[in-house]
Amino acid sequence: MPVLTAGAAGLHETLALLTSQLRPDANHKEDMVFLRDVFSERSLGYLMKIHEKLRQYERQSPTPVLHSASSLAEDVAEELQMSAPWSQHGCFLSHQAVLSVHDTVAQKDFDPVLPPLPDDFEDELEEESVKIVRLVKNKEPLGATIRRDDATGAVTVARIMRGGAADRSGLVHVGDELREVNGVSMVHKRPDEISQLLVTITAITMMMMVYMRALFDYIPLEDKATPCQEAGLPFKRGDVLQVVTQDDPTWWQAKRVGDSNLRAGLIPSKQFQERRLAYRMKMGTLPNPKSPKKPASYETQELSFLSFLPAGLAPAGLRRSFRLSRKDRQGSSGEGSDPGDSEFLTYEEVTRYQQKTHERPRLVVLIGSLGARINELKQRVIAENPHCFAVAVPHTTRPKKPHEKEGVEYHFVTKQQFDADALNNKFIEHGEYKENQYGTSIEAIRSVQAKNKLCIVDVQPEALKRLRTAEFKPYVIFVKPRVPESRRRRSADEELQEMRQSAIQIHQQYGHLVDRVLIKEDSASACVELRGILERLERESFWVPVRWVRT
Predict the structure, then answer these.
(1) Final residue of a structural domain among 168, 190, 208
(2) pTM for this model (two decimals)
(3) 144: domain CATH number?
(4) Which of 92, 246, 303, 457 has the fewest Cβ atoms within 10 Å of its own Cβ atom?
């Protein structure tokens, strides 16, 4: 068969030539007949001609003569109605819709006309998203386990069995709340009643609201992998994103919480982001996140930061001489789902949480960069309101002084007991100072919370891993001093540079675990700001990891 080209000839002519050259072959007779019938279709030839005409018209760059053909046609129709019977102009009026389309294109006004926003618009944004799932089963189980909250009556999916009906559907996820099954409400249903309904399931109505805290910065315009950079959603580390759909395993659609823009944007999925970070690390373009550099503040932090020592005992300017034990540096929270446990930081699923009256107060954790003097800040806030705030009494191996009381300044223990407790991982952190051991235990924190007091601790950032549990639900405040830019003597300038670098390094390594950054101008203003934060913790809701609530 000769080669056909569509250079000067039109597509419909090329198609006609191709059809004429199709000859039945003994081996492929049926295929040739089928192709000839398809290419000989008159409608296909018409479509080709229309395509050619449109391409020719497009090359002419046509512009509309006017933008109001529809209104002009209405005026003409009115004039004609006055001079002739209506029936004579019915054909003309039937093209009114085509003229309206012409005007829309000419004016380039393609956006739909939306009704005005209601007065309670902000309230409506907080409404729960609901999805309806229909599952077709062949006498097989749903393939999911459920749990019921005795306090609220909410029924949630606890586990998805691989290969079951729920897993194959891809529509049911762990944490989804079952609202209805076959039109029957699940609220306050007994487990046996729910199980019976799930046997004859045809439709489930579930609440699905997925919120993720971003643990990295994302700029779509710099992402060459995104399918559409203009459709991407930029965000910064710490932003809370509402994921509206995860249908695409590579690109989720999400909105920033608090953003007035109602349109969702594309963000890389957790799995995709982790895969490409792993690839970059393999290629050597990304440092290994498992071996971060230790911030300079670990070795140069002022002794007054040391929460084990009462305020006023530390000589000014003396540097911290102890080191955290190797075991504490590694950390072992026991939960295994902290964002710090994963190889790459991408997203952390979060939910709104407000402390209830019967619950223990949340733990407040202070971390500070060089020069922040957070122990002094902590002691000042507690002294103002000792009935509401308290510190966890530390343990020590040093001898008790005459004026000291057991369990007030310290828990005084033997070196053997201290070493045994450290070996059993009972301290959130511990260290040595002047040949004596000091440490803050988990039980000391629980003792404060059992008195319904808000416990405030200041720790090395590495200890956050031990504290980020559903039991403590810590609120982490990063305190850093405002470093002036003015240059004085050389030694002072070097010290300011150390303070600045310390804050940068802690932010880079632990900023994803921080709930609030407090810039310390002076002790008085920092104390007022910290006190305001502590008061709001009791009456306002905050974003927390979802695993802290769904336990």
Answers:
(1) 208
(2) 0.60
(3) 2.30.42.10
(4) 92
